[in-house]
C-alpha cells in the first residue's frame, strides 16, 4: 500500500475543507425515488428492497449490473482517497455476486485551491482498484465543485439466475460480516487529527480492501442473500434484508469492531449520519442499538446469509482470502415481536 501522508498542510486542508456530505436515511431515500422507478420485465432486481445495484437481464445467460457511488475525502492522501472511493463504488457490484467489467470516473474537484497533481493522484488510486478486480476504466466526467468528490459508475455482469439479492435469506441461515465496523467514527477522528499513524493505517487498510475476493472465496458455496455495509450502517443495511416472514438475531459481542473505534466513539467523535441511522433502525430493535452497529461506513464489508451447513466453511474461506476479522454474527429466525433482536 502507498505510504500514508500526514505532514502536508495542503493535503490536511484537502480533507478538512471537503467535510462530510449529508446522506439521506434509508426511509428518505425510498420515499424520494419510490414513485419514479417503474417495473420492467427485464429489471430483475427488486424495486422494494433497496438493492445494492440494478440487475438488467439481456438474455438467458447474461444480466448487466449497474451502480454508482461517490464520496468526499476520508483521508489526506489523494491516492489512498482514490483507492477507498473506488473500492466503495465497486462494492455494490460484488454485493450482487457479480463481476465488474467497466468503470467510469465521477469527479467533482476544487481546482481553485488544489492542484491538478492532486486530482491525478486521486484518479490513479481509483484506477489501481479498478485494475485489481479486473475491470477496465473507460472514461468519466468531471465538474468544478466547492466540495471535492470522487467515485465511479460501474457496470458488471452476472448470470441472471445466480445474482445475490438482499431479501432472499432463508430460515436457519447464519449471517457473516466480512469486515469490522467503525470506519465512520475513525474517519471523523482522523479529520479532527486524533488518530495515530497505526490507527490510521488500520482503518485505511479496511476501507481500501476490495470485497471482490469474497466472490472467489464463495464460488462453490450457495449465498442465499447478501448486501454490503456502507452509509446506512450495519443495522441499516441489515434491515434491508428483512422480509415479513423472517427476523434476525444478532450476537452483539461477536460483531467485529475496529480496535480503536470504541475509544473515539466514547469521546463523541461520531458522524451525524450514524445518529440518523440509529434513529431509523430503533423501530426494528428490542433495545437501543449500540451506535457502532449504526456507524456510517465507507467501503464496509459484506453481510452474507448462508445455510448453517456451509457457513463455517465459508468463514474459513473468507479468512483465508484476507478477511481476517470476518465473523458469524447472527442467525435468520422465524418472525418475532421485533425484527432485529440484539442479544
Automatic annotation (TrEMBL):
Catalytic activity: hydrogenselenide + ATP + H2O = selenophosphate + AMP + phosphate + 2 H(+)
Residues noted as binding ATP in the record, renumbered to the chain: 23, 49-51, 69, 92, 140-142
UniProt site positions, description: Important for catalytic activity: 23
Annotated PurM-like N-terminal domain residues: 51-158
Gene3D superfamilies to which the protein is assigned, alphabetical: PurM-like C-terminal domain (3.90.650.10), PurM-like, N-terminal domain (3.30.1330.10)
Catalytic machinery residues: 20
Domain PurM-like C-terminal: 172-340
GO annotations of cellular component type: cytoplasm
Keyword Metal-binding on entry: yes
Gene Ontology MF: a single term: ATP binding
Keywords annotated in UniProt: ATP-binding, Kinase, Magnesium, Metal-binding, Nucleotide-binding, Selenium, Transferase
Binding annotation for Mg(2+): 52, 92, 228
Known EC number: 2.7.9.3
Subunit-level organization: Homodimer.
Family stated for the protein in its record: Belongs to the selenophosphate synthase 1 family. Class I subfamily.
Listed PANTHER family: INACTIVE SELENIDE, WATER DIKINASE-LIKE PROTEIN-RELATED (PTHR10256:SF0), SELENIDE, WATER DIKINASE (PTHR10256)
Function: Synthesizes selenophosphate from selenide and ATP.
Protein name, entry field: Selenide, water dikinase
Organism: Campylobacter hyointestinalis subsp. hyointestinalis
Amino acid at each position: 500500500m502507498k505510504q500514508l501522508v500526514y505532514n502536508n498542510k495542503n493535503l490536511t486542508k484537502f480533507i478538512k475543507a471537503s467535510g462530510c456530505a449529508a446522506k439521506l436515511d434509508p426511509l428518505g431515500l425510498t420515499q424520494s425515488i419510490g414513485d419514479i422507478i417503474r417495473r420492467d420485465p427485464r429489471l430483475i432486481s427488486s424495486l422494494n428492497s433497496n438493492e445494492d445495484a440494478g440487475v438488467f437481464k439481456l438474455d438467458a445467460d447474461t444480466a448487466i449490473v449497474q451502480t454508482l457511488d461517490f464520496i468526499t475525502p476520508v483521508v489526506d492522501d489523494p491516492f489512498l482517497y482514490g483507492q477507498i472511493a473506488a473500492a466503495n463504488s465497486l462494492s455494490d457490484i460484488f454485493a450482487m455476486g457479480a463481476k465488474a467489467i467497466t468503470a467510469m470516473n465521477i469527479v467533482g474537484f476544487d481546482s481553485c485551491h488544489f492542484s491538478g497533481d492532486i486530482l491525478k493522484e486521486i484518479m490513479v488510486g481509483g484506477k489501481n482498484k479498478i485494475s485489481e478486480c479486473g475491470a477496465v476504466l473507460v472514461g468519466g466526467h468531471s465538474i468544478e465543485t466547492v466540495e471535492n468528490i470522487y467515485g465511479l459508475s460501474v457496470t458488471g455482469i452476472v448470470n441472471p439466475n445466480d445474482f445475490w439479492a438482499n431479501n432472499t435469506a432463508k430460515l436457519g441461515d447464519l449471517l457473516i460480516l466480512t469486515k469490522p465496523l467503525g470506519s465512520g467514527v475513525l474517519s471523523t477522528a482522523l479529520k479532527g487529527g486524533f488518530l495515530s499513524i497505526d490507527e490510521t493505517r488500520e482503518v485505511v487498510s479496511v476501507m481500501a480492501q476490495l470485497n471482490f475476493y469474497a466472490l472467489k472465496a464463495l464460488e462453490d458455496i450457495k449465498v442465499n442473500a447478501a448486501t454490503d455495509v456502507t452509509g446506512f450502517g450495519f443495522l441499516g443495511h441489515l434491515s434491508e434484508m428483512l422480509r415479513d416472514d423472517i427476523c434476525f438475531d444478532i450476537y452483539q459481542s461477536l460483531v467485529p469492531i475496529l480496535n480503536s473505534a470504541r475509544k473515539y466513539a466514547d469521546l463523541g467523535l461520531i458522524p451525524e449520519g450514524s445518529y440518523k441511522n440509529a434513529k431509523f433502525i430503533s423501530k426494528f430493535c428490542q433495545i437501543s442499538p449500540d451506535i457502532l452497529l449504526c456507524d456510517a461506513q465507507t467501503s464496509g464489508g459484506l453481510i452474507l446469509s448462508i445455510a448453517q451447513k456451509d457457513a463455517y466453511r465459508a468463514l474459513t474461506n473468507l479468512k483465508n482470502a484476507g478477511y481476517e476479522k470476518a465473523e458469524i454474527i447472527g442467525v435468520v429466525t422465524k418472525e418475532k415481536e421485533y425484527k432485529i433482536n440484539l442479544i
